[in-house]
Structures are given as structure tokens and as C-alpha cells.
Amino acid sequence: xxxxxxxxxxxxxxxxxxxxxxxxxxxxxxxxxxxxxxxxxxxxxxxxxxxxxxxxxxxxxxxxxxxxxxxxxxxxxxxxxxxxxxxxxxxxxxxxxxxxxxxxxxxxxxxxxxxxxxxxxxxxxxxxxxxxxxxxxxxxxxxxxxxxxxxxxxxxxxxxxxxxx
Length: 165
Prior knowledge:
The protein is of the alpha/beta class. The chain has helices at 15-20, 23-31, 35-48, 91-95, 111-118, 141-150, and strands at residues 52-55, 59-62, 120-121, 127-129, 137-139, 155-158, 161-164. The protein has six helices and seven strands.
């Protein structure tokens, strides 16, 4: 059903995760001498997958969730024990992300790729770095509400979870 089923990129569609969790080894085992070529084609395919979608103008869906504004993102990581403000990103900024990275960057203008694939919800309001995971953000219910209202959406889905306005 090519006009009804769409695949989105998740955090496991990366060189790092495919190597760590056995996908690379499995491809090499199944395809023998052609294993490296087949594996590289998978990685190239992963880069082409969409990062998010809006369904029927009311549902935002992605693997990780919400993301920061690249216009407000710092150019370097903050010094230890220093906090910085993280502003919620826009769908326009998300559409500018270069998906050509196989692995997620830790900083720079394409950090949104990391955010949209690795972020997680939090019960605490606000948008902040996920220091425990090193990639992505933690976002609160206030951010979900603001994002849904800004784009006149009703539902946000991510990693098998749903938030409804």
C-alpha cells in the first residue's frame, strides 16, 4: 500500500546502532562477499527515510519527538554545570535538516537530526538536553501543548506513544 504506508527513520537506522545491535553482522553473514555492498546500500536507504510526517493535517508523528530551534541552538556544548536555554523548533526548521548524516551529530546546525530521533518526553515542563543519554532532548507537557497549538494539530505520536491535545 505505497500511498497509505510510510516508513519513518528511527534512531536504529544509523551506522552506530546497526553495528552495535547486530544488523551489520547479520547482513554480512547473509550476503557473504556482497555483504559490505548490501550493508552500505541499507545505510544509503536509511538516509532517505523521512524524519517525521503530518497525517491528515492533525497528527504529527516521528520516532523521537520534539526538537530544538536551530536558530537558538548554541554553537558549542555548554560548559559543565552550566545550563542554556533551549527553544522549541519549528516544522520549517525540521524540513531544512540534512538527512545525509548516517550517524547523529552531537552539536552543530544538524543537531535537530539527533533531537528528532533520540528525544524523549518528560513529566517536567520545559525543553532541555538529555544529559543522561547524550543525544536528544527531554520535553515536557507544556512543549507538547505549544507545538500542537502552533501547528493546529491534535495528536503527537512517537515511539509507540501518543499525546493528545
